[in-house]
Protein backbone atom coordinates (compact mmCIF):
# COMPACT_ATOMS: atom_id res chain seq x y z
CA UNK A 1 0.00 0.00 0.00
CA UNK A 2 1.13 3.56 -0.59
CA UNK A 3 2.43 5.30 2.52
CA UNK A 4 -0.12 7.53 4.28
CA UNK A 5 0.54 9.67 7.33
CA UNK A 6 -2.86 11.16 8.20
CA UNK A 7 -5.94 9.52 9.67
CA UNK A 8 -8.05 11.09 6.92
CA UNK A 9 -5.84 9.29 4.38
CA UNK A 10 -6.47 5.97 6.12
CA UNK A 11 -10.20 6.72 6.29
CA UNK A 12 -10.29 7.39 2.55
CA UNK A 13 -8.55 4.16 1.47
CA UNK A 14 -9.42 1.57 4.10
CA UNK A 15 -11.69 -1.35 3.18
CA UNK A 16 -12.59 -4.46 5.16
CA UNK A 17 -10.02 -7.24 4.85
CA UNK A 18 -11.14 -10.87 4.87
CA UNK A 19 -8.08 -12.59 3.40
CA UNK A 20 -4.87 -12.28 5.42
CA UNK A 21 -1.32 -13.46 4.86
CA UNK A 22 -0.15 -16.34 7.00
CA UNK A 23 2.84 -14.26 8.15
CA UNK A 24 2.77 -12.74 11.66
CA UNK A 25 2.41 -9.01 12.23
CA UNK A 26 5.75 -7.24 11.84
CA UNK A 27 7.21 -6.78 15.35
CA UNK A 28 7.81 -3.04 14.85
CA UNK A 29 4.21 -2.54 13.70
CA UNK A 30 2.97 -4.59 16.67
CA UNK A 31 4.98 -2.45 19.10
CA UNK A 32 3.64 0.75 17.59
CA UNK A 33 0.12 -0.60 17.75
CA UNK A 34 0.52 -1.66 21.38
CA UNK A 35 1.69 1.86 22.22
CA UNK A 36 -1.42 3.31 20.57
CA UNK A 37 -3.61 0.81 22.44
CA UNK A 38 -2.07 1.76 25.79
CA UNK A 39 -2.74 5.46 25.15
CA UNK A 40 -6.33 4.82 24.08
CA UNK A 41 -7.04 2.58 27.07
CA UNK A 42 -5.77 5.29 29.42
CA UNK A 43 -7.96 7.88 27.70
CA UNK A 44 -11.12 5.80 27.34
CA UNK A 45 -11.27 3.48 30.36
CA UNK A 46 -11.45 0.50 27.99
CA UNK A 47 -9.14 -2.53 28.07
CA UNK A 48 -8.48 -3.14 24.36
CA UNK A 49 -5.90 -5.87 23.75
CA UNK A 50 -3.90 -7.08 20.75
CA UNK A 51 -4.06 -10.89 20.62
CA UNK A 52 -1.83 -12.69 18.12
CA UNK A 53 -1.50 -16.20 16.75
CA UNK A 54 -4.87 -17.81 17.58
CA UNK A 55 -6.55 -19.03 14.37
CA UNK A 56 -8.85 -21.25 16.49
CA UNK A 57 -10.95 -18.14 17.20
CA UNK A 58 -11.83 -17.93 13.50
CA UNK A 59 -11.54 -21.63 12.58
CA UNK A 60 -15.04 -22.05 11.14
CA UNK A 61 -14.86 -18.96 8.94
CA UNK A 62 -11.30 -19.68 7.84
CA UNK A 63 -12.48 -23.16 6.81
CA UNK A 64 -15.55 -21.87 4.95
CA UNK A 65 -13.60 -19.27 2.99
CA UNK A 66 -15.43 -16.33 4.55
CA UNK A 67 -12.06 -15.47 6.09
CA UNK A 68 -8.56 -16.67 5.24
CA UNK A 69 -5.62 -16.93 7.65
CA UNK A 70 -7.37 -14.81 10.30
CA UNK A 71 -5.47 -15.43 13.53
CA UNK A 72 -4.90 -12.03 15.17
CA UNK A 73 -7.46 -9.70 16.66
CA UNK A 74 -8.08 -6.63 18.73
CA UNK A 75 -10.20 -7.70 21.69
CA UNK A 76 -12.55 -4.85 22.59
CA UNK A 77 -12.96 -5.30 26.33
CA UNK A 78 -14.67 -2.87 28.68
CA UNK A 79 -16.96 -2.48 31.69
CA UNK A 80 -19.91 -4.83 31.82
CA UNK A 81 -23.36 -3.32 31.22
CA UNK A 82 -22.07 0.15 30.31
CA UNK A 83 -23.68 1.59 27.14
CA UNK A 84 -21.23 4.49 26.99
CA UNK A 85 -18.30 2.06 26.89
CA UNK A 86 -19.92 0.20 24.01
CA UNK A 87 -20.00 3.44 22.06
CA UNK A 88 -16.40 4.14 23.07
CA UNK A 89 -15.42 0.67 21.83
CA UNK A 90 -16.72 1.65 18.40
CA UNK A 91 -15.12 5.10 18.49
CA UNK A 92 -11.70 4.09 19.76
CA UNK A 93 -11.73 0.72 18.00
CA UNK A 94 -12.16 2.60 14.71
CA UNK A 95 -9.31 4.90 15.74
CA UNK A 96 -7.09 1.83 16.05
CA UNK A 97 -8.39 0.42 12.75
CA UNK A 98 -7.26 3.59 10.97
CA UNK A 99 -3.94 3.55 12.83
CA UNK A 100 -3.40 -0.05 11.70
CA UNK A 101 -4.15 1.04 8.13
CA UNK A 102 -1.34 3.58 8.39
CA UNK A 103 0.95 0.70 9.44
CA UNK A 104 -0.02 -1.23 6.30
CA UNK A 105 -2.21 -3.77 8.11
CA UNK A 106 -5.61 -5.07 7.07
CA UNK A 107 -8.53 -5.04 9.50
CA UNK A 108 -12.10 -6.25 9.74
CA UNK A 109 -14.81 -5.58 12.31
CA UNK A 110 -16.20 -8.92 13.50
CA UNK A 111 -19.72 -9.52 14.79
CA UNK A 112 -20.54 -13.17 14.06
CA UNK A 113 -17.45 -14.57 12.31
CA UNK A 114 -15.65 -15.76 15.43
CA UNK A 115 -15.77 -18.04 18.45
CA UNK A 116 -16.25 -15.57 21.32
CA UNK A 117 -15.63 -18.20 24.02
CA UNK A 118 -12.27 -19.15 22.53
CA UNK A 119 -11.43 -15.46 22.13
CA UNK A 120 -12.09 -14.91 25.84
CA UNK A 121 -9.69 -17.70 26.70
CA UNK A 122 -6.85 -15.84 24.94
CA UNK A 123 -7.35 -12.39 26.49
CA UNK A 124 -7.99 -10.78 29.88
CA UNK A 125 -11.63 -10.38 30.82
CA UNK A 126 -12.34 -9.80 34.52
CA UNK A 127 -15.62 -10.45 36.30
CA UNK A 128 -16.60 -6.79 35.91
CA UNK A 129 -15.83 -6.71 32.17
CA UNK A 130 -17.28 -7.95 28.88
CA UNK A 131 -15.60 -8.84 25.61
CA UNK A 132 -17.78 -6.72 23.34
CA UNK A 133 -16.48 -7.83 19.96
CA UNK A 134 -13.29 -8.23 17.96
CA UNK A 135 -11.43 -6.71 15.03
CA UNK A 136 -9.34 -9.03 12.87
CA UNK A 137 -5.94 -7.59 12.03
CA UNK A 138 -2.83 -8.63 10.16
CA UNK A 139 -0.82 -8.52 6.95
CA UNK A 140 -3.34 -8.44 4.17
CA UNK A 141 -3.49 -10.28 0.86
CA UNK A 142 -6.08 -7.71 -0.22
CA UNK A 143 -3.77 -4.78 0.47
CA UNK A 144 -0.76 -6.54 -1.05
CA UNK A 145 -2.66 -6.84 -4.33
CA UNK A 146 -2.93 -3.04 -4.47
CA UNK A 147 0.55 -2.25 -3.20
CA UNK A 148 1.60 -0.62 -6.45
CA UNK A 149 -1.41 1.69 -6.71
CA UNK A 150 -1.30 5.36 -5.78
CA UNK A 151 -3.51 7.15 -3.27
CA UNK A 152 -6.12 8.25 -5.81
CA UNK A 153 -6.50 4.69 -7.10
CA UNK A 154 -6.93 3.38 -3.57
CA UNK A 155 -9.60 6.01 -2.89
CA UNK A 156 -11.44 4.93 -6.03
CA UNK A 157 -11.18 1.30 -4.94
CA UNK A 158 -12.89 2.18 -1.67
CA UNK A 159 -15.57 4.23 -3.41
CA UNK A 160 -16.60 1.29 -5.57
CA UNK A 161 -16.02 -1.41 -2.94
CA UNK A 162 -19.54 -1.31 -1.52
CA UNK A 163 -22.72 0.74 -1.93
CA UNK A 164 -23.10 3.72 0.37
CA UNK A 165 -25.94 5.95 1.46
CA UNK A 166 -26.00 9.46 0.07
CA UNK A 167 -25.53 12.72 1.94
CA UNK A 168 -29.29 13.26 1.72
CA UNK A 169 -30.03 9.83 3.21
CA UNK A 170 -27.55 10.28 6.07
CA UNK A 171 -29.05 13.71 6.90
CA UNK A 172 -32.69 12.59 6.59
CA UNK A 173 -33.79 14.50 9.76
CA UNK A 174 -32.96 17.82 8.05
CA UNK A 175 -35.11 19.86 5.68
CA UNK A 176 -33.81 20.43 2.16
CA UNK A 177 -32.79 24.08 2.59
CA UNK A 178 -31.12 23.45 5.95
CA UNK A 179 -29.25 20.50 4.46
CA UNK A 180 -27.95 22.56 1.55
CA UNK A 181 -26.99 25.51 3.75
CA UNK A 182 -25.08 23.47 6.35
CA UNK A 183 -21.42 24.52 6.71
CA UNK A 184 -18.67 22.77 4.81
CA UNK A 185 -17.24 21.13 7.94
CA UNK A 186 -20.57 19.39 8.55
CA UNK A 187 -20.78 18.17 4.96
CA UNK A 188 -17.19 16.90 5.17
CA UNK A 189 -18.02 15.09 8.40
CA UNK A 190 -21.02 13.34 6.86
CA UNK A 191 -18.96 12.40 3.80
CA UNK A 192 -16.39 10.78 6.11
CA UNK A 193 -19.10 9.03 8.13
CA UNK A 194 -20.46 7.52 4.91
CA UNK A 195 -17.18 5.56 4.69
CA UNK A 196 -17.55 4.05 8.16
CA UNK A 197 -18.02 0.28 8.46
CA UNK A 198 -21.26 -0.89 10.12
CA UNK A 199 -23.08 -4.13 10.85
CA UNK A 200 -24.50 -5.59 7.61
CA UNK A 201 -23.48 -2.29 5.96
CA UNK A 202 -26.68 -0.83 7.41
CA UNK A 203 -25.17 2.65 7.94
CA UNK A 204 -27.61 3.24 10.81
CA UNK A 205 -26.39 6.67 12.00
CA UNK A 206 -28.16 9.90 10.98
CA UNK A 207 -26.67 13.37 11.30
CA UNK A 208 -28.25 16.81 11.57
CA UNK A 209 -26.82 20.31 11.73
CA UNK A 210 -28.31 22.66 14.34
CA UNK A 211 -28.00 26.25 13.00
CA UNK A 212 -29.06 27.74 16.33
CA UNK A 213 -26.24 26.11 18.29
CA UNK A 214 -23.87 25.76 15.31
CA UNK A 215 -23.21 22.13 16.15
CA UNK A 216 -24.21 18.67 14.91
CA UNK A 217 -26.23 15.79 16.35
CA UNK A 218 -25.86 12.05 15.67
CA UNK A 219 -28.64 9.52 16.25
CA UNK A 220 -29.23 5.88 15.49
CA UNK A 221 -31.84 5.43 12.78
CA UNK A 222 -34.72 3.43 14.33
CA UNK A 223 -35.56 2.12 10.86
CA UNK A 224 -32.26 0.17 10.69
CA UNK A 225 -32.62 -2.90 12.89
CA UNK A 226 -28.91 -3.76 12.86
CA UNK A 227 -27.81 -0.44 14.35
CA UNK A 228 -25.87 -0.50 17.62
CA UNK A 229 -23.98 1.83 19.93
CA UNK A 230 -20.77 0.39 18.47
CA UNK A 231 -21.91 1.56 15.02
CA UNK A 232 -22.70 4.97 16.51
CA UNK A 233 -19.19 5.26 17.93
CA UNK A 234 -17.55 4.22 14.66
CA UNK A 235 -19.55 6.76 12.65
CA UNK A 236 -18.84 9.52 15.16
CA UNK A 237 -15.10 8.92 14.87
CA UNK A 238 -15.19 9.12 11.09
CA UNK A 239 -17.34 12.27 11.22
CA UNK A 240 -14.94 13.92 13.67
CA UNK A 241 -11.93 13.23 11.45
CA UNK A 242 -13.73 14.56 8.39
CA UNK A 243 -15.09 17.66 10.14
CA UNK A 244 -11.82 18.60 11.78
CA UNK A 245 -11.58 20.30 15.17
CA UNK A 246 -14.40 19.33 17.51
CA UNK A 247 -15.52 16.88 20.17
CA UNK A 248 -18.50 14.52 20.46
CA UNK A 249 -20.64 14.10 23.55
CA UNK A 250 -21.41 10.43 24.15
CA UNK A 251 -24.82 8.87 23.70
CA UNK A 252 -27.54 8.47 21.10
CA UNK A 253 -28.36 12.09 20.26
CA UNK A 254 -24.91 13.28 21.39
CA UNK A 255 -23.74 16.60 19.99
CA UNK A 256 -20.55 17.45 18.10
CA UNK A 257 -19.17 20.62 19.69
CA UNK A 258 -17.20 22.49 17.07
CA UNK A 259 -13.99 24.03 18.48
Automatic annotation (TrEMBL):
InterPro entries: Nitroreductase-like, TM1586_NiRdase
Putative nitroreductase TM1586 domain ranges (all copies): 7-243
Name the UniProt record assigns to this protein: Nitroreductase family protein
Organism (species): Bifidobacterium favimelis
Amino acid sequence: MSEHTQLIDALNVRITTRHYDADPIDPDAARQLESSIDAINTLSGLDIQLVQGHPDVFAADNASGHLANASNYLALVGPKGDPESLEKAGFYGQRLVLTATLYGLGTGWVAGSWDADRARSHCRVTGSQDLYLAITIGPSKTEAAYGSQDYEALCERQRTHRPSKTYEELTAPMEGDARDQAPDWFKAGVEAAAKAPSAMNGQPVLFAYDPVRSDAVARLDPAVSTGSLVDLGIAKLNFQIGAGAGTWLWGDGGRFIRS
